[in-house]
Structure prediction request, 185 residues.
Amino acid sequence: MLAIGLSACAPDPVSQSFLSGENTGYVAADGAIVEIPVAERGEPVEFGGVTETGEKFDSADIAGQVTVVNFWYAGCAPCRLEAADLEAVWQKFAADDVSFVGINTRDQADTAIAFADEYDITYPSLIDVDTAEAKLAFAKVVPIAATPTTLVLDKQGRVAAKIIGPIDGPSILSTLVKDTLAEDS
Prediction:
């Protein structure tokens, strides 16, 4: 039991390797981008849950909008590194028919709120750690094998693009959102 307690205090090797640029132990390719042609997109993803502030969320509330969904958790080094870029893209498109939703896969609400405060994140995140309701809804269409993973959903709620690993600056995500916005409904 003592060994387990001591190992919990050790630095997270995945975070350490990511920060040092080694990426040993990292699950997926860095920033792998997959765009899905309109004709090949699956069914719309219906998802929901409770946000870090206790609000109920249902994807039906954002129907008809392009939606960026980011799977993350506070202890994830690449999640911390991409936070400002995600917020920048959110701010760029906030006046358009675009929604951003985080899906926190490991933390409780207090930790998610502290992260949002520290990194100035203004879009909501679903707390999915206890139910995995949102992650399971997406797993039917696209497996979420790495954190972070960022998805762009089209106006019908179908996965139009995915970025596996951290986004590499705001440019590519902005382009994916802009292109998805420009699609015919």
Observations:
- The longest helix spans residues 77-93.
